Amino acid sequence: MAGGTVLWTSDELGSAEHCSLDVGGAGATLAGTTVLPFEGRPAHIRFSVTTDPQWRTRSVDVEIVGHRSITVVMRVDDGAWSVDGVARPDLAGCVDADLGWTPATNTLPIRRLGLDVGESAELTAAWLRFPDLVVVPSRQRYVREGAHAWRYLSGDHDFALETNAHGLVTRYGDDLWVATATADT
Predict the structure, then answer these.
(1) Over the stretch 134-161, which tens digit does the pLDDT of each residue have?
(2) What CA–CA distances, in Å, run from 106 to 40, 84, 86, 87, 141?
(3) Which of 15, 31, 56, 157 is the most exposed place for a label (fewest CB within 10 A)?
(4) What does the alpha-carbon distance between residue 43 and residue 183 come to, in Å, rounded to a whole number?
(5) What whole-number distance in Å separates Cα of residue 28 and Cα of residue 22?
(6) Which pTM was predicted?
(7) Would you list the domain boundaries of the chain?
(8) Cβ distance 78 to 67 under 8 Å?
């Protein structure tokens, strides 16, 4: 199980995304490109999230290209987070990154937690909110409801997730994001 690719669409968000998951001995990399409106104009976001072999986030690189270009760089070193080179002690204890425009980063805790059906776990993720692009700690709960069925809860959010064998989301909520094509790599 080296990885996979997925193409998601979201009618509600007016977006489409291609994402790949590559898993190796040194960790995993989630990389994608999302096309969506940003500040009322066409834009695309390129992102990459790397983990260590235990699925703990090590780096996040985001580039938004539209009527203006924006980058966000997050790094984790021995549990100490920085965002755009600025230390962020408020993110201490976060293990996962959550990018607010994509279901891709749900894969990180799904793979890291290794929950059995019926089990649940709470965590705090470093959430890059969209569209304001502010990074904040976010309390989240994952419940494994079936072999490929999960429930994601955070604040007012309560979504059923379906995943493939790689932990990539194939359906998020009723139709917030839906995989229209997947492949193993």
Answers:
(1) 999 999 999 999 999 999 999 999 999 9
(2) 26, 23, 25, 24, 11
(3) 157
(4) 26
(5) 6
(6) 0.95
(7) 3-184
(8) no
